[in-house]
Design brief:
about 550 residues; alpha/beta; binds zinc ion
C-alpha cells in the first residue's frame, strides 16, 4: 500500500523488539507472538522518526528533541486494534529501546542481555540506522475517563506482560493498580476519579479515547496537566481516539484543529462523496479506514453498524466510518452535497445571481454566486484572488466592511449580475449603497429571519441537491471548502407548521456560507421563473 511508505530515519528496532517481546493478549491466539498490523508499523515509524543529523544527548536526558514529532494522535475506528497497540507501545517505552543513542557505523548489535532481559534476543543494525537503548527510569501514565475505559489499554498490557517472555523478569511486576518497572520506574493509571499522580514528571503517556475528554467532565484540563508532566523528563505521548463529535470541543478535536507540525496525526478517511447510509458505499469506506488492519471481518462490523444506525447513526459513522460528524443529523448529508461537485471555469461577463449574508463581529460573511443554469461558486476578488468568504478572526476580530464592499463592486464589474439577495441586518447602510450603485431592481433585501420564506428557500436547494438526476443535474457547484463545511454544519430545527429553520450545532460551527448558498439558489430560481435568465444569449449577442 503506497500510503505506508517510509522514507525517513526511524527506530526500526522498536517494532522488531515489540514482536519479540509482546504476545497476543486475548482470544484464540492468546500468548502467540504479536504481529503488528501495517498501520501500526506506519504509526511507529512516524512516532520514532529521528531528525536528520540528530546528535544523541551524552547524558540521555534531552530525549524528545531528537525526534521529528513531539507526540502522535491516532484516530482509528472501533476494532482496529488501538488498545492493544497502545499497550504494546507502552511496553516498548517501559523496557524497550526508545532512547536514541546515535547512528550505526555497521556491526553494532543490540543484545537484550545487556539491558536486563535474558530472552536471548538481539538486533543487528544496518549502516546508517539510528540506534537506541531503554529509558533508565521509565515513568509512564495511562489516562482514561473511567476505570472501565482504562481497561482498553491496561487489560491487554497486563496480559502481554504476564503471558510473554517479560514474565521471567524479576524487575517487572504486574500489580492490580500499577506496574513496577526497573530502577523505581512504574506505569500508573490516571482517571477522572484517580488523580493522585497527575502532574508528576513522566517519560511517556497514553491518552486513550480523547474524544471523550471535554470541558464538562474536566478531562481537557487533566490531559493538559499530564502533558505538562512530560516536558520536565523530555517525555513523549500518544493519543488514541475515535472520530469526535465536532460540537463537543474535546481534546481529540483540539489536537486536530491545532494542526501543529510537531504532532504526527494518523486519521485515515474515505472520500466525502461516499455515503455512510448506503450499505455498498459503507464497504468502500471500511476498506479505506481499516486499511492495514488485516484481521477485520467487514460482515461482522457491518452487522454492528446496521444495529447502531437505527438508534444513533452519527455515532455509527464516527465509530466505524472514522468521520467527524455531529450528534444530530445535518440538514443536507455531506455526501449529497459532495455528489454535486463539478468545478468549472466561469468566464467574466457571464450572467449570474448572488447571495450575501453579512455579520458584524462573530459570524462569518460571504458571497456565493450562481449561473442561470444552476452552477454555484464562490467568486474571488482582489489581486490575490481571495474567495468572498470572511472570517472576522482573520481580520483582527472585525468584519472587514470596506473590503467586502470593494469585493461586491468587483463582482458586479466582472460578471453580468442579474440579481443579488442580501440579508440586511447589520448591513442596512451598505445594502442601500449597493442598490444605489448597481440598481435597486438587482440588489434586493431578502430577510432570512422570515420563517416561511426561509424554509421554502432551504427546501428548494435541498430538493435540487437530493433529488438530482445524475444525468442532467439542476444544481452543481465548485467544491468550495467553506461551503462544504458550513453546509455540513447546518442543522434543521423544527418550527410550527411543519417548517424548520437552519441553526448551527455549536458556536464554533458556522453556517453563514450555507445561508448565502440558499440565497443565491433562491435568486437563481426567481429570475428563471421571471424569465430574466433567458436574456443571457441576447446579452452575449448584443455585447
Ligand atoms: Zn529480550
Amino acid at each position: 500500500m503506497p500510503e505506508f511508505t517510509v522514507s525517513w530515519p526511524t527506530l526500526w528496532i522498536i517494532p522488531d523488539w515489540i514482536e519479540a517481546h509482546v504476545v497476543v493478549p486475548d482470544r484464540a491466539a492468546q500468548g502467540d507472538p504479536l504481529e503488528l498490523y501495517d498501520w501500526q508499523l506506519f504509526v511507529l515509524a512516524n512516532h520514532y522518526r529521528i531528525k536528520d543529523g540528530a546528535e544523541p544527548d551524552p547524558r540521555r536526558e534531552q530525549v524528545a528533541s531528537k525526534f521529528y514529532y513531539r507526540r502522535s494522535q491516532i484516530v482509528m475506528p472501533q476494532k482496529s486494534g488501538k488498545g492493544p497497540f497502545a499497550a504494546a507501545q507502552t511496553i516498548a517505552e517501559a523496557i524497550g529501546p526508545t532512547v536514541f543513542i546515535g547512528w550505526s557505523r555497521g556491526g553494532e548489535v543490540y543484545r537484550c542481555r545487556d539491558y536486563g532481559c535474558d530472552c536471548g534476543w538481539s538486533y543487528a543494525y544496518e549502516v546508517g540506522e539510528p540506534m537506541a537503548e531503554p529509558r533508565r527510569a521509565p515513568l509512564i501514565q495511562l489516562l482514561a475517563t473511567s476505570e472501565d475505559q482504562v481497561d482498553n489499554v491496561y487489560r491487554p498490557l497486563q496480559a502481554m506482560l504476564k503471558l510473554g517472555p517479560i514474565a521471567d523478569r524479576s524487575d517487572v511486576r504486574v500489580g492490580e493498580g500499577f506496574i513496577r518497572l526497573p530502577n523505581m520506574g512504574r506505569i500508573d493509571v490516571v482517571t477522572s476519579s484517580a488523580q493522585s499522580r497527575l502532574g508528576n514528571p513522566i517519560t511517556f503517556a497514553v491518552q486513550d479515547e480523547t474524544q471523550l475528554y471535554t470541558k464538562t467532565n474536566k478531562m481537557l484540563k487533566v490531559a493538559q496537566t499530564m502533558r505538562r508532566g512530560l516536558s520536565g523528563m523530555s517525555g513523549r505521548a500518544i493519543e488514541t481516539t475515535n472520530a469526535w463529535d465536532p460540537s463537543e470541543g474535546s481534546t481529540a478535536q483540539q489536537t486536530a484543529q491545532a494542526n501543529s507540525p510537531d504532532v504526527f496525526r494518523f486519521h485515515p478517511m474515505a472520500p466525502a462523496a461516499l455515503s455512510f447510509k448506503n450499505k455498498a458505499e459503507r464497504r468502500k469506506i471500511y476498506r479505506v479506514v481499516y486499511a492495514g488492519s488485516t484481521h477485520i471481518d467487514f460482515d461482522a462490523i457491518d452487522a454492528e453498524v446496521a444495529e447502531l444506525m437505527r438508534t444513533d447513526p452519527a455515532q455509527a459513522e464516527r465509530f466505524f466510518g472514522n468521520r467527524i460528524v455531529s450528534g444530530s443529523d445535518s440538514w443536507i448529508d455531506p455526501a449529497d452535497w459532495a455528489a454535486c461537485e463539478s468545478p468549472r471555469v466561469i468566464k467574466d461577463g457571464t450572467s449570474i445571481v448572488l447571495g450575501f449574508d453579512g455579520s458584524d463581529v462573530d459570524d462569518w460573511s460571504a458571497i456565493r454566486a450562481e449561473t442561470t443554469d444552476g452552477y454555484q461558486f464562490t467568486p474571488t476578488y482582489g489581486p490575490s484572488k481571495r474567495p468572498t468568504v470572511w472570517n472576522p478572526a482573520d481580520f483582527g476580530g472585525q468584519t472587514p466592511r470596506l473590503e467586502i464592499s470593494a469585493a461586491v463592486d468587483e463582482v458586479f464589474k466582472r460578471y453580468r449580475v442579474i440579481r443579488m439577495y442580501c440579508d440586511p441586518p447589520y448591513w442596512e447602510t451598505e445594502v442601500d449603497q449597493w442598490a444605489e450603485k448597481h440598481g435597486d431592481k438587482k440588489v434586493v433585501r431578502w430577510l432570512t429571519r422570515r420563517p416561511a420564506q426561509m424554509h421554502d428557500a432551504a427546501e428548494r436547494l435541498k430538493t435540487d441537491i437530493t433529488r438530482a438526476d445524475p444525468d442532467s443535474p439542476s444544481f452543481t457547484h465548485d467544491a468550495c471548502p467553506f461551503a462544504a463545511e458550513h453546509v455540513g454544519h447546518a442543522r434543521a430545527a423544527a418550527r410550527p407548521a411543519e417548517r424548520y429553520v437552519l441553526v448551527k450545532p455549536s458556536d464554533a460551527q458556522k453556517i453563514d456560507v450555507c445561508v448565502t448558498s440558499i440565497l443565491a439558489h433562491e435568486a437563481a430560481g426567481d429570475v428563471r421563473a421571471a424569465g430574466l435568465a433567458k436574456s443571457k444569449k441576447t446579452y452575449l449577442y448584443s455585447a
